[in-house]
Design goal:
alpha+beta; Jelly Rolls; Phosphatase 2c, domain 1; 6-stranded antiparallel β-sheet; 5-stranded antiparallel β-sheet; 18% strand; elongated
Length: 639
């Protein structure tokens, strides 16, 4: 992908700079210059014997050669014509410039071969003595990557001589022409990048849907790639290594987000073949990043492999991943919902343009096909940008329509959940009935608006204290409905014993066929401390910090033939019974550790609210319900 930036830059600057006669500026003829491969600091000397050097008109930098020199001879009258003489160099490489053996400027570092993307640079120098009959301009260059040239070799440098201000005006004119020529391609990419940022901002408020996030990431990375290309087009001083790294990383992220977006929009899993292709794309992307870590000579060898082998493969992979992605994601088309068919059609059109675009790029290194992209780039760039903008616009319209429908559904559901929560709290009121001589405390903390836990505290007509606590399997509205049903079924059964009440609730749940089950425990405590407990698969209570050993039957709703026992026991003055739902035991901290039975037992003598708060602070994962009952016969006698 990083070659796309260099290709765009060279394709744009070449027409603007070649063959133009600009007033006040002298262009160097290739016949004035010679070149040779290699590196020797002495080659900047004005009196150097240039026999054996080849004319610049015959330039063809040998593959694998990273260092070379160029020398140009200019008559003194050419320099004397300008009050503030300067040399303009167009060259995309690291180089140092000499005039008559004296350094006058550079671009980049000759040691590592890195340079800035400012490919048209202007170097001023003092006026030369009129006695100089001939002057020598020398360029010492280090190159570490092949270019978009069909042969994969470095393009020859170009020189211009003129007044400093005239050369600056010429450079500014080049930039203006480039921007105006590419406005059709650039403007859609600008809009796409802005849309990506807006989508990500929108998704920050609602992360429940993946499609806006993936599309926002894809568009944002497209915008980032555009900014990177624009920096090259405007010839900023951005280091080439930063441009290559940023373009490679943003291109990779865009490919990943866009590929997954198609299948997420179609509600399909990304095929394993595509996952393998993505892995291969990662390898291709990592190749130019590895080149950045090497010295110029080995980096140039690796880049030649990249230009002729890795890059074509990567473009073919992009044609499959990004171009064929929408075709495969929405196949078969007759099964695409009507509301999505316009989106599928535009996505397919976008994919078709991308297939042509990337296959044309893949053909660049091959003889006979090398000019294909060059010939069609003025059409392919705008077509790709406009197709992408149209597809993104249609997709966003579709997503916004879906989001609006979802918002309406959520508002309706929120109202229903609020009503269910109010009903549940009405059936489990905050005011707790407690018999004389007994102290009852309750803490009820649902995980959501409504919960599957339920409890009942009633004083029966004969003075017994009834405690009913349970937990319906599952969470949310369905569990809350079942809990509300069981509470209502147990409300007017004051004449039943604990085991009779559980048997009745079991029959109710079985007849309703709601699915799932419920654990439940019922305890009756008389004024003299005599108590009976029946258990349907619920956690046994703690008596004074120790687990009470009682029999347990099947949970409610499992079988309509279940019987429950209710063994009696006697409470002594000051005894405390603690009833818990499994939301206490199953609380889980950030490292995944359960609160567990040992911790639950250790805090079981605390108040109901203290126990609930400790469990919530540890990490609430389910509804938390705690009831504590303390037997205080002295209070009854005092009364």
């Amino acid at each position: 992908m990083h070659k796309l930036a260099a290709l765009l830059l060279l394709a744009l600057t070449a027409p603007a700079l070649r063959g133009q006669a600009v007033p006040g500026i002298l262009a160097f003829s290739p016949q004035q210059c010679v070149w040779r491969a290699g590196d020797n600091p002495a080659w900047s000397a004005p009196s150097l014997d240039e026999s054996g050097w080849r004319p610049l008109a015959q330039w063809h930098a040998p593959p694998g050669q990273s260092r070379f020199w160029v020398r140009c001879r200019v008559d003194s009258p050419g320099f004397a014509a300008f009050d503030h003489p300067a040399v303009q160099v167009r060259f995309l490489a690291a180089y140092q410039l000499f005039l008559n053996g004296v350094p006058i400027g550079r671009n980049g570092d000759l040691k590592n071969g890195f340079f800035s993307m400012d490919s048209i640079r202007i170097f001023s120098f003092p006026p030369l003595p009129a006695a100089n009959r001939s002057n020598v301009l020398s360029l010492r260059a280090v190159f570490r990557m092949v270019t978009a040239d069909p042969a994969g070799s470095l393009e020859a440098p170009e020189f211009r001589l003129g007044d400093t201000n005239s050369l600056r005006d010429n450079r500014a004119g080049v930039l203006v022409r480039q921007l105006s020529d590419e406005a059709t391609s650039f403007l859609p990419l600008v809009v796409i990048g802005i849309v990506g940022l807006l989508l990500l901002g929108f998704s920050a408020w609602d992360r429940s849907h993946l499609e806006p996030i993936l599309l926002g990431l894809s568009c944002t990375f497209v915008g980032l790639m555009f900014v990177n290309i624009l920096c090259g087009t405007l010839m900023t001083k951005e280091p080439v290594w930063a441009q290559l790294a940023l373009y490679s990383l943003s291109g990779t992220a865009n490919t990943l987000a866009q590929t997954f977006f198609y299948f997420s929009l179609a509600r399909k899993r990304v095929p394993n073949v595509f996952r393998l292709l993505i892995g291969a794309w990662f390898v291709c992307t990592a190749w130019p990043l590895a080149e950045l870590l090497l010295p110029p000579q080995p980096a140039l060898r690796l880049d030649a492999i990249h230009f002729f082998v890795i890059a074509p493969v990567s473009y073919v992979l992009l044609a499959v991943l990004l171009g064929c992605g929408p075709f495969i994601a929405f196949w078969p088309y007759q099964q695409v919902p009507h509301r999505m068919r316009a989106v599928a059609a535009l996505s397919a059109a976008w994919g078709a343009v991308l297939i042509v675009f990337f296959l044309a790029l893949a053909a660049e290194p091959f003889p006979g096909l090398s000019g294909l992209f060059q010939a069609w780039q003025s059409t392919l760039f705008p077509a790709q940008s406009i197709a992408q903008l149209c597809a993104v616009g249609a997709i966003i319209a579709f997503i916004l329509r879906d989001q609006r429908q979802i918002a309406v559904q959520r508002a309706s559901l929120a109202g229903e959940m609020q009503a269910a929560s109010e009903i549940q709290h009405m059936l489990a009121p905050a005011t707790i009935e407690s018999a004389s001589g007994l102290s009852v405390e309750v803490a009820f903390h649902p995980m959501r608006e409504v919960g599957g836990d339920f409890f009942l505290c009633r004083v029966l007509p004969d003075g017994r204290q009834r405690i009913l606590i349970g937990d319906v399997s599952g969470k949310g509205a369905a569990a809350a409905m079942a809990a509300t049903l069981l509470l209502g079924a147990g409300e007017e059964r004051g004449g039943d014993s604990p085991h009779e009440l559980l048997a009745h609730l079991n029959q109710v749940l079985c007849r309703m066929r709601l699915g799932g089950f419920a654990t439940c425990l019922c305890a009756d405590v008389a004024r003299d401390g005599r108590a009976t407990i029946a258990n349907a698969g619920h956690l046994p209570p703690y008596l004074n910090g120790a687990e009470l050993k009682i029999d347990s039957g099947l949970p409610l709703g499992v079988s309509d033939q279940t019987d429950y026992s209710e063994p009696p026991f006697q409470l002594a003055a000051g005894d405390m019974l603690t009833f818990l739902s499994d939301g206490v035991v199953e609380a889980r901290n950030s490292s995944g550790e359960l609160f567990g039975f040992d911790r639950s037992r250790a805090i079981s003598t605390q108040s109901a609210e203290q126990i609930a708060v400790v469990a919530q602070a540890f990490g609430q994962q389910d509804d938390v319900t705690v009831l504590t009952l303390t037997f205080n016969p002295a209070e009854m006698l005092h009364a």
